Amino acid sequence: MVEWIISDGLTDYEAALDFMENRVDAIARGEAEECIWLLEHPPLYTAGTSAKVADLIDPNRFPVFEARRGGEYTYHGPGQRVVYVMLDVTKRGRDVRQFVKDLENWVIATLDTFNVKGEIREGRVGVWVERPEKSRNADGSICEDKIAALGIRLRKWVSFHGMSINVDPDLSHFGGIVPCGIADHGVTSLVDLGLPVTMNDLDVALRQTFESRM
To answer: Annotated catalytic sites, by residue?
Structure first.
């Protein structure tokens, strides 16, 4: 069984870290169910274990937190669905790369319910969408924007941290960092793509696609 938690309002980041730490330990001890936690944070930046100082362009814009997850700098804020995954990877084959791939495919399947084609790109973390309506890149390739970011950590083969999917955040807030260390591509959201999707719509789709992907 996987417990689903949906938090209203904005959840303090440090409180979320404390919850995940405690829940992961309890899952590892066999004292708690696995958990998917859906929430929103107030505007903030997080630094993963690979974050480069130069990628924090505006350090005074929002609070900056050490996330202790994989990856680089990421923005969280209102209008973005954060999906924290506290799952037993042992039950899923103890294959970390496959687990990450399964998470990516879960996001892609969820986006597909809104007729959005999410894609993975070698060497670029996250889920991307092509933007053929934009001017092409200098090399003639189609522009691509990131719609979802991903970064996890494992403890005793239990995952925590997870994913963030842009529903309708203020995209200008990403300007204070180089998102995930990738400077040559933009960031988008479901609403930016012209889709009137609500947070509840996304939550429903996430639950519908979870069982077939995870």
So the answer is: 180
